[in-house]
Design brief:
8 helices; 8 strands; alpha/beta; 21% strand
């Protein structure tokens, strides 16, 4: 059985217990839950009931990318997932996605998801962008991030070959890594919604919208040349 490592970066998040509850209730049991406390001062008490079921790591505050990298460093699984401490996995997330990855010999996959509110009520239809072919995927990813990071499952080989998250990018570290991935590997999509993504006033994407826009431009320009070359090659094939 393949071990799946699920990394939960935690920083002062009141929803952490709901995230952890969703992980201990996964239908696939061969998992390790790695909570990386990124210098939190609040809500640590919500983790206490789960301490016997998780690997718990404390570090100085360094941002989500640094917490994820610390988790990856301590992970023993061949497959790695990430769950933000305010989001929730459906019970079958690990089982369904791992089965899909193994059947398709995929090294990277992402899924559809639903949005939830502060009360954990579903507030959207099934969300998930699945371009019809590699050419359209490269076009879409050149413009912006279409992959929800917490819906992803990644084989360890990807990190071994491409490296981990860029800790200098506080907000777009996921998008930057996906751009590295899409240049080298096939990206697979699981249409079933397997993640509940929480939308709330304290979420980073709302609080830091301007900084995120600036950082995204930086990431797009960093990979622009390679992505354009890749598009040209794919267009020649079509």
């Amino acid at each position: 059985m393949s071990m799946v490592s699920i990394i939960v970066p935690f920083y002062n998040c009141p929803y952490i217990d709901q995230a952890l509850e969703s992980l201990v209730n996964q239908t696939y049991k061969h998992i390790e839950i790695i909570v990386v406390n990124d210098g939190s001062t609040q809500y640590k008490d919500k983790i206490v009931p789960y301490l016997d079921k998780i690997k718990y790591i404390e570090k100085k505050n360094g941002g989500t990318a640094s917490a994820l990298n610390m988790g990856i460093k301590n992970a023993t699984g061949n497959y790695i997932c990430w769950l933000s401490s305010d989001d929730i996995f459906y019970p079958e997330k690990t089982e369904v996605q791992l089965d899909f990855m193994q059947r398709n010999r995929a090294l990277f996959s992402y899924t559809s998801y639903h949005c939830i509110n502060e009360k954990s009520e579903i507030i959207t239809a099934n969300l998930g962008i699945n371009p019809p072919n590699r050419l359209e995927l490269i076009k879409a990813m050149s413009r912006g991030n279409i992959i929800n990071g917490c819906s992803v499952m990644i084989h360890r080989k990807v990190f071994n070959l491409l490296g981990v998250f860029d800790e200098k990018l506080p907000y777009t570290h996921d998008y930057e890594l996906w751009l590295r991935v899409v240049q080298k590997f096939d990206i697979h999509f699981v249409p079933q919604p397997l993640l509940l993504y929480r939308v709330h006033k304290q979420m980073g994407s709302m609080k830091h919208a301007n900084a995120i826009t600036k950082e995204k431009s930086l990431v797009v320009s960093r990979h622009g040349n390679n992505m354009r070359q890749l598009l040209k090659r794919l267009l020649r094939k079509h």
